[in-house]
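Hi R.,

Here are the chain sequences for the assembly we discussed:
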Amino acid sequence: GAGVSQSPRYKVAKRGQDVALRCDPISGHVSLFWYQQALGQGPEFLTYFQNEAQLDKSGLPSDRFFAERPEGSVSTLKIQRTQQEDSAVYLCASSLFSRGGPQHFGDGTRLSIL
Amino acid sequence: AQTVTQSQPEMSVQEAETVTLSCTYDTSESDYYLFWYKQPPSRQMILVIRQEAYKQQNATENRFSVNFQKAAKSFSLKISDSQLGDAAMYFCAYSRSQGNLIFGKGTKLSVKP
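And here is the predicted structure of the full complex:
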C-alpha cells in the first residue's frame, strides 16, 4: 500500500480483556515505531523495531504490553488484561532509515476500555 | 532527559495572514533532528517540515518555514498565507540518534475566514 495501515481503526474492549493492534508499514521501511497518544496530549514513545529486532521497549508502560515484528514487516501491539488507563490512540509509524529520517504515521487505533 | 515544550496551547490566525508557533527543547546532544507535524481531526500525523541540527540553514517547505536557533534551543514554525486547511494540532518533535520522536503537547491552530 501507499501508506502505513493500522487496524482496527476503533476497538472497544471490556476491562480485563486482551487486545491486539496491527500495523502494516510502508514496504521496505526498516524502522517501525509505536506511540500512545492520550486525549489532548502529544504522542509518547512505546517501542522501536529495526527490521525484526526490537531495539528499544523502554516506553512500554507495563509488562502487560508486548510488541512483535517477526518477519520485519507487519507489527502487532498486544495489551493483556486491559485497564481503563490503557484507553488512548495507538499510533504506528515507519521510516526508511534507521535514524533521523522522517516518520510516516498511520491513522491510529482508538482503544476504549469500558 | 530530552524534553520539548510548546508554550502556546491555542493560536488563531486570519486567513492569508502569517502565524508563528513556538517550540523550545532541552538536550545535551549535538546531533539530533527536529520536526513539525500536523494532526488534523482525522488523527493522521503529517510531516510538515524537518531540520537537521548540524545544518545552520533554516528549512523551508513552500508556505512553511522554521527559525532554528541552536544555541537558544528554539525551533519555531512560521506559516505564511494561512489557509483554512492549515487548521489542526501542530506538534513539535525532537529525535536523537536512535530515531524515536519526543513530542511537545501541541498547539491547536484555528484559521478564521
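The CA atoms of residues 34 and 94 of chain B lie 5 Å apart. The two ends of chain B are 41 Å apart (CA to CA).

Let me know if anything looks off.

Best,
T.
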